[in-house]
Amino acid sequence: MKEENDGPITIPDMHWIILSGNEQDFDNAPEWAKRLVCIQGQTYWWDGSCTWRDTKVKSGFESHDFSLPDEGYIVAERRWVRAF
Questions:
Q1: Average pLDDT in the 41-61 region?
Q2: DSSP string of 51-71?
Q3: Of 43, 39, 41, 40, the residue nearest 67 (C-alpha)
Q4: Contact residues for 27 (Cβ-Cβ < 8 A; gap 6+)
């Protein structure tokens, strides 16, 4: 089931650049996901702020803890930038 926030965002002259990992890491990522993280063996999409979603389940949650837990690490990261 597709959620409202999963639809493609079309902003002229903008695109994702890969900072770490590779493009295939983001093949099934929601458009808002900036990072793929691993926490205690489980992978999550993370917007880098407060939105998290399990990569295997379409459910997500928001947290008021804006940092990556100590036991977690970033697997892949991308940034939304203006094309020149």
A1: 84
A2: EEEESSSS-EEE-S--S--TT
A3: 39
A4: none
